[in-house]
Design goal:
Rossmann fold; five-stranded parallel β-sheet; 13 strands; P-loop_NTPase; phosphoprotein
């Protein structure tokens, strides 16, 4: 049992190297697309949602929802399953999820300088130099963010991450494939009892991470010979209760012999550990009164309702297109695009977002217009926090009912 991983950025001639390597070795190619498809099958998530895990941009709601961490947990499990097969070439971001303890993996990095990549972009995609540089920079940023997320290493091309780094602009394709084949025959890459155990530990850790993520937990997981260590990296008000809950979840997983918890490096920082409540909506507050909206955000957080904030209509619309909130609390009077226009556009493009109007300047005519445009509720400032919380709960109930209702299909 052995594997080759390939990590590269765009326009480094990776595709032809991987094809030739597969032909020469007989190894089966597995791409990020394949692993995403399996993760989607396991989790029920949409593939395009899983794909976002590889982006440098993280959702503004992630501090509360742990969306990226949950997605990565499913990717790890999909990859761990695939890695049990013999003779694989794993190509892409997912390859970086394989623990270093699995030694029967040859880690290969393909790189090239900017000039060569720009030229290749023009030849293969007919891209102008400016557009090519823009795409290359953006994709390199995604890879740098991914490596930093996984290892806190800011250099995605750091030699310590790989067994071989091959400059595709200075090395011929046949020579690169030959070098990879030669290294693949090295005794260092040979499968051993220890490396096979490490692969089984990878599966066990991935299953544990997914089980915890299902319950809303974001916890570090390490497995060794069936023993699981769970690392708590944020301060928690009731540590013993959290430890008992984590152990109960992990202890149900087949193959685990023991579970222990420990405190991580980040435990003594000011961040408070919060289990994600799947029944709480992703909430966006839109108001140009910064002090008011920040205070409101803090008061809602005390009720376990985390929120993101936008201070003008344009920012809100941009955020909605990228991060998909479920509920908005929206002011009417704002500079630039006002609240009524934001409401109109939201309901035209994403009608499932429930919008609660919260304003200090609206009239009865404004209320009638907002409700006719599809607002869920219309509240006046100053608002009683309990009244607002009740409106949020009702909006969330409507969202959950819609999500849980069977989808009608047409013949």
């Amino acid at each position: 049992m052995s594997a080759i991983t390939i990590f590269s950025s765009i326009f480094c001639r990776k595709e032809s190297v991987v094809r030739t390597l597969a032909d020469k070795t007989g190894y089966h190619c597995v791409s990020d697309k394949d692993i995403i498809a399996r993760a989607a099958e396991l989790s029920g998530m949409k593939p395009d949602k899983i794909q976002k895990a590889f982006s440098a941009k993280t959702s503004v709601f992630n501090n509360f929802t742990h969306e990226k961490e949950r997605t990565v947990a499913w990717l790890r499990l999909a990859l761990a399953e695939i890695l049990t097969r013999d003779n694989m070439i794993i190509d892409g971001f997912s390859s970086q999820l394989i623990p270093r303890e699995i030694s029967h993996v040859l880690r290969v990095c393909l790189i090239a300088d900017m000039k060569s990549r720009v030229r290749h972009a023009g030849e293969s995609r007919n891209l102008a130099e400016k557009e090519a540089r823009h795409q290359i920079t953006r994709e390199d940023e995604n890879r740098a963010a991914w490596i930093y997320y996984l290892s806190r290493n800011r250099d995605p091309w750091d030699p310590s991450l790989y067994d071989i780094i091959l400059p595709t602009d200075k090395t011929g394709q046949d020579e690169m494939v030959k070098l990879i084949e030669e290294n693949l025959r090295s005794e260092i890459i040979t499968s051993t009892d220890a490396s096979r155990k490490a692969a089984q530990d990878f599966i066990l850790a991935a299953r544990t991470e997914v089980a915890l993520a299902r319950e809303g937990h974001n916890i570090g997981v390490c497995a060794r010979d069936g023993a699981i260590t769970l690392t708590i990296n944020k301060n928690v008000l009731m540590l013993n209760r959290l430890e008992d809950e984590l152990k109960a979840i992990a202890g149900k997983i087949e193959g685990i012999r023991s579970v222990e918890t420990r405190i991580g490096k980040g435990y003594h920082k000011t961040d408070i550990y919060r289990k994600y409540d799947f029944e709480v909506p992703k909430l966006l507050l839109v108001d140009d009164e910064r002090e008011f909206v920040q205070t409101l955000s803090e008061r809602l957080l005390m009720r376990n309702m985390g929120s993101a904030v936008a201070y003008d209509g344009e920012s809100a619309l941009n955020l909605i297109s990228e991060d998909e909130p479920e509920v908005m609390i929206l002011d009417l009077k704002m500079p630039g695009i006002d609240g009524i226009e934001v409401l109109r556009q939201v309901k035209e493009t994403q009608p499932d977002i429930e919008v609660i109007i919260l304003t200090g300047h609206g009239s009865e005519k404004d209320r009638e217009l907002c409700m006719s445009l599809g607002a869920f509720a219309y509240l006046q400032k100053p608002v009683n926090i309990e009244e607002l919380s009740a409106a949020l709960r009702e909006a969330n109930r409507k969202i959950r009912e819609r999500k849980n209702s069977p989808q009608l299909t047409t013949p």
